[in-house]
Amino acid sequence: MSASAALASLRPLLATARETQHPLHVLLIGNSRYQHNAALVNPARDVQILAQAFGARGARVQTLVDQTAQQMDAAVTAFLRQLHQSPATIWIGYSGHAVQMDGRNYLQGIDSDFSTPQRVRTFGLNLETIVSLIGRVQPQAAVVSVDACRNNPFEPERTRGLAQGLAPMEPKGICISFSTAPYTKALDGDEGNYSPYAQALAQALAGQQQKSLDQVLRETADAVFVRTRKKQIPEYRSALRAEWWFTQQKVALRSDEPLTPSNSVQNSSTREATYRPDEPRSHPSFSQTTAAAWTELEMQLLMQQQRTSQAQAQQLLKSAQAGPVNTFERLLLSIFLQDGHPGVPRSPRHARHMLQPLADQGHVLGQNLLGESWFAEKAYDLAYKWISLAARSGYSRARTNLGHLHMLGQNNSDPTAGALQALQGMFQQAQERLGSNPTSPQITPELQQEIDRIQQMLRGSGR
């Protein structure tokens, strides 16, 4: 047999290894008729329109309406148990109320009670529990969508201590789609209609043409963003190992290696993707900058901050008021305005005004500094937006800040949440600084101060 003939005979095997077809199993839960809290008009309708859309794609759909937390837990467990070791793709969707406490998200059953933190946990299903159960079953690929935290408020005196919006989550080998970004709220939609997210997702699934999961979720996010006049900002985060494509009746998973139960959702080699429709388009020159280069620029700014005299700072402020200054000077002046300097009066609002154009262009330091400024104002939605965007570049200070946001960004937060991520960012900072200056200590005083602060928080929590 010739080499070309041998290659031709292997092509079907190679194609099979790189693309596999799997049935899609969908569980949709919609909670509307809450017994002790504000009722929602549309979740029960949302699951119906989505069931039709998924069904048209050949999915096997199960819908449940008005479930208690215990019923939801049992339903998810039963749904996953029947698919154990089955070469299937799954989608679990929830529509209804949800809240975050201690940095964890709880999907609320219709019997939810917010009189005490313990009852919030008792009558809510921890989203991390669903993700953990999916990991045990190990389907070929999985999506969890959460259309929750709506604009129908609970009684304020009964929700004291609950932070606004849901907390960010690591996808852990799956894809997690939120109808609205962390620390923001979603809209329930017009009465007798559908939620903006459910309607947009159903429309994105419509038709029989092949569509990638990324395309479906991006279309959904963009549509919600436009229809709500930028009031609602969906976000999804994916760590799937293979590319997910909707075909006429099944899901096609495309990968560089065969998919097996042992390396499905648990595989460490993933295709990470994150999207929200209000992301700025990165300037080409910024997108090519490495994480180490951003750290080096940070060190240059810190050194210049220490060297700048009162007269030099005053002159820099005058120059900026007279006309444009270069990027380095803009960053330096924003630090003076945020933190204060003998030659520059403190004005965080002015600092954010200077940083915004850089952040919009994808300048990672500008994004991180802008996020830090919003964090100081306790505007956690904007802090998360800009810090998480900066952290995607691998920039260590942004990664550290993202860990701090997980720890401190919620009222009544669990001080252990995000601590590991923050420490990882700190040690990355130390390694990068050691690489740029081998004579400097690996753990700088400022890093040690941050580590000590976290340790004090952990000791204070009794952990």
Kindly describe this structure.
This protein is an alpha/beta fold and 463 residues long. It is 47% helix and 14% strand. The chain has 17 helices and 14 strands. The strands form 3 sheets. It has a 7-stranded mixed sheet, sandwiched between helices. Strands 1-13-12-10 form a 4-stranded antiparallel sheet. It has a 3-stranded antiparallel sheet with strand order 5-6-7. A hairpin with a 2-residue loop joins strand 5 (98-101) and strand 6. The radius of gyration is 24 Å and the shape is elongated. The model is unreliable at 6-17, 151-162, 409-420 and 438-442 (pLDDT under 50).
Offer a concise description of the structure.
This protein is α/β, with parallel strands linked by helices and 463 residues long.
